[in-house]
Write a structure and sequence with these properties.
The chain has an eight-stranded antiparallel β-barrel, surrounded by four helices. It has helices spanning 15-24, 45-48, 83-92, 147-160, 171-179; strands at residues 2-13, 32-40, 51-58, 61-69, 74-81, 94-95, 104-120, 123-132, 135-144. It has one domain (2-179): Beta Barrel (Hypothetical Protein Pfu-838710-001), CATH 2.40.320. The mean pLDDT is 95. It is of the alpha+beta class and 180 residues long.
Length: 180
């Protein structure tokens, strides 16, 4: 199992802002697709406890991730999966003890993101167009090594691009809500 600390800042933006940023950073030819398959117990115990469990599919690669809130950012645990194992889990659910959760889980939502990224200051910017259950939205994410420095860099980026910062729900929450 791989463990990581994730410190990220994000906000939803308009389609026009997204397109302008992709053009400004010359990223039009670097957009790739990833699909998040979200899992939970039938009574949404993980969601209630602010735990995100997903399998992310990028091309032929599959990664199972558990995200939990931490005092700073999120703690993430990852397990790389074979395509066959991932598809089995996506179709049939699985026992999440393999990633230290004592539950049987099933797929509860799905979201596909068309993402591009570039390095910026002390972190990495992501520009996302996400599609899920008839919805399309656009978002900027900034992943940083340090909380305060990352927040400062992100807010300065937003200000320099005349983008209003609005805290946005996680992709998993948006997908859950849209599926209801």
């Amino acid at each position: 199992m791989i463990f990581e600390k994730e410190i990220e800042f994000k906000t939803l933006i308009t389609k026009e802002q997204y397109e302008a940023l992709v053009k400004e950073f010359n990223l039009k030819d670097n957009i790739y697709c990833q699909t998040n398959h979200y899992f939970d117990t039938p009574d949404f115990l993980l969601h209630e406890n602010k735990i995100v469990l997903r399998i992310r599919q990028k091309g032929d690669n599959y990664k199972l991730t558990k995200k939990t809130k931490s005092t700073v950012g999120n703690d993430e645990s990852h397990i790389l999966l074979t395509e066959d194992k991932a598809k089995d889990y996506i179709n049939s659910g699985f026992n999440a003890e393999i990633i230290d959760l004592p539950y049987n889980v099933i797929k509860v939502a799905e979201l596909t993101t068309y993402r591009t990224s570039c390095f910026y200051k002390h972190g990495k910017l992501f520009f996302d167009r996400s599609e899920y259950y008839g919805h399309v939205d656009y978002e900027i994410e900034y992943e940083a090594e340090h909380d305060e420095e990352g927040k400062h860099d992100f807010l300065n980026f937003m200000k320099s691009h005349n983008i209003e910062y609005k805290e946005s729900p996680k992709k998993s929450v948006r997908a859950f809500e849209a599926k209801k």
